[in-house]
Amino acid sequence: MTLSAEERRYAEEKLGRRLRLGEAALLEATWSEHCSYKSTRRLLALLPREAPWVILGPGRDAGVVELFPDVALAARIESHNHPSAVDPYNGAATGVGGIVRDVLSVGATPVMLIDSLFLGPPADGLSRWQARLIVRGIGDYGNRIGVPTAGGSTWFSEAYRGQPLVNVAALGLVAPGDVLPGRVEPGDVMVLAGNTTGRDGLLGSSFASKPLGEDDSGAAIQVGNPFLEKLLIDALREAYERKLLRHVKDLGGGGLAVAVSETAAASGVGAIVHLDRIHLREPDMSPVEILVSESQERMLLVPRRGRLGELLELLDSHGVEASVIGYFVEEPRLRFLYRGEAVAELPVDLVVSPPEPRRDWVPPPEAPPLPPLDYPDPVRFLSTLLGSPRVASKEAVYEAYDWGVGGRAVAAPGYMDAAVQWLRDSTRRGYAAAVAGNPRYTRLDPWRGAALALEEAYRRVLAVGAEPLAFLDNINSGNPEKPEQHGYTVRMLEGLAWAARELDIPVIGGNVSLYNEDTDGHMVDPVATVLVVGRVRDVTRALPAAYRGRGPLLLVGAETQEELGGSEAASLLMGDVAAGAPPQPRPWAEKRLRRLMERVVSEGLAFSAKSVGLGGVLAAVAKMALRGGHGIHVLLDRVCRCGAFAAAYSETPGRLLLEVREDAVDYVAGLAEELGLSAAVIATPASKDTLSVKYGDTLSRVSLEVLSESYTRALDWLREP
Amino acid sequence: MPRVAVVKFPGTNCEEETALALRTHSGVEAKIVWHLDYRWRDWDAAVIPGGFSYGDYGRAGLIASWSPAVGELREAADNNVPILGVCNGFQILVEAGLLPGALLPNAGGRFVARWVHVRVHNPRGPWLLKAREGDVYSMPVAHAEGRYHVDDVSSVTADRPWIEYLENPNGSIASIAGVASADGAVLGMMPHPERAVWPWQPPPGHGTGGKMLFESIGLALKRGW
Q1: Is residue A592 located within the same domain as residue A654?
Q2: How many domains does chain A have?
Q3: Annotated active-site positions of A, please?
Q4: What is the ipTM of this complex?
Q5: Which of A174, A225, A309, A382 has the fewest Cβ atoms within 10 angstroms?
Q6: Backbone dihedral angles phi then psi of residue A435, each to the nearest 5 degrees
Q7: What pTM was computed for the model?
Q8: Among A127, A227, A107, A118, which Cα is nearest to A168's?
């Protein structure tokens, strides 16, 4: 039980009596870290939330921003780390199911899934097995519900051996006036729709709120049923169209207990729930098990007045089971009854306000300095870098996902720096989303690392020609009860808050996953996964990250510095060791790039574009050339006044590569310079099948075929059954 | 205006983009019709779109092939009504015996989603009206059970209209991506034409190959075939 002795004492003092068994279970669910954010609530308040285009900020099942006056975009991100470590297939699959229901809950139609995976080293058999099952779990679930998985990120490191992280995000579309306001009134009826309630996932939320290994019981794992989820999606979309619903809430962590408590608290009302009215999978379940079961594919529906009958008929016609289980009342008390007997009877404010635990933290240690390294010839090193599982093509991952269902996909994954979709209406409008998070950076310097993650996701959205509107974050960190681990959580959130204010971008939701430590108490590499969503005014102008061979490549943005600390190249040279301070964040440069890109896109000045990130300029150029199938000649000494290796692989943020129309090079460079950004032509088209690099008097050359072999084959093992 | 039914089973998930492609590229009235409500006499043609009907329980397309809608489709086929099955729709037509062969789990053992090129052979009938022998089209595939098998390959390739993968993604025999009835009125195919109709859908190196099918049926329903 994670309800601590102090918490129990606190509750019993407030009540003036002992807790019933059902009440302890209820509080264990609602007071769990997973549901209450009790350790991070104050820190999350640091993130900027306000912007005129924000329709729903953090706190609801999903955030919503206005995309265009007639269309809003809903989004949510969440981790499913603990379940995916114990049962990779079902853990990842149910993560997808839950995030889709979150987006559905605000009245939106789910249209895109994105996932960020942090996996163990490919050399390790167990990690390979986990990786394959996680990919298969996401694919089997997402594909079957007809929601395309259109983007993501995949990281591999020793730090995730046996303990992978799975962060999933979903996007949805809704008319601004149809966003459900999240309020119910006394007298409103509650319908529990969807799956039967069973013993799976009992108190999974509190399982996720302690370290692994303490209790890896299978009972805490949920099993997904994507076919039923698909029926739920179709039924709810019809119910929304017919305006039958006043409020909808996903049954996620903490099951019915949390869904009812949060709904009542948000509306300042109480509730009476008859647990014996719920359709069960196992008829011999105890009332307490029913209360906290986390069986998947269940939603709490509150119909508008007088529409209950119609709602039940509609659910039935879609083959979705439903039970009328209770109603909301004026008195702010929660009463869960079983055959008339009280299983739990508590005031709402107590249920949703856990005592704030004392969380001490110490600043994480400074990054160890980058040792002197013997830098090889950058061109010879390029195959090694492109073959690194972190840099290599992720085609083996995304081709297992149905990224094209719905017909909204613009291009396909891998062709663009962000996932771009079309609204599928009579216009060419669309939206974009990109996710970023570099655990090596956040391990070395959590403040910078988190700021850089936001910068990178923001920059990727810029690269396709979209306008960033909002972000969501998923903090994955250690045990908040250990000050040396909690320090990483604190510093990541501080860094994120700083960067968000500098970039002037609001947060509309997020998730915090703590207790990511192994059985020996070692924390995994903490990481801030950041999702940025943006507006695309015309999808026909969205820029691919594939070199078209039509013009020179212009490097624009912050001036490149020798910043190899925490870089992919330096880490590979040291044998996968992380050292050195990560690059200095440069949100000012990203903001200026935004203004530059507005001009470049609206005036049609570029053929392709790519954000410079992991692996620096040379990795970005090589990927563009490989994707486009066009040879390229790189003028490495134009990148910076530093050594060849740093010019190639430094990870200075705030930089974009633009393939610019020959006749517009000076014009674009001029625009960049006016904005206070550097600009230099660093590559030109070359004969079809080579990448050549000139630095000073040396000229090296490598065939695209050789590079492609490293880049596209590195993750072939994921395709094995 | 000709009327085309897009037949939806529980778990079907490509019905909206299919109906949109029919409306905009075929110039027909297209409606999504719940499988229990489908009556073949009410429609000039039918499309069974992709998805996971009944969650692909048993085998892809198996349970849907027992639906009363399939009885209606059989009668429609007997009466020369054009029928197109895409992906899961193809699987249903094969399970129902409306088209020969079987669709087995991919040779790679995994779901595979990627753009491919396909070539049309023996074009005939309403769905391939605008295609010529050997024409190549681009469109994406996305399936886990698309490995076509038939004992006698020549029974499919000799005289029927059929579609061939240029890059076989699933181990299909003779790289068969799609098969039609002898007269071409009933066509089943694994690739998704409805995802290759708008200029912003294909990545560099590919085109809007699906338009040919939608333009063909539009023309066929207006002028005959």
Answers
A1: yes
A2: 2
A3: 34, 80
A4: 0.96
A5: A309
A6: -125, 145
A7: 0.96
A8: A118
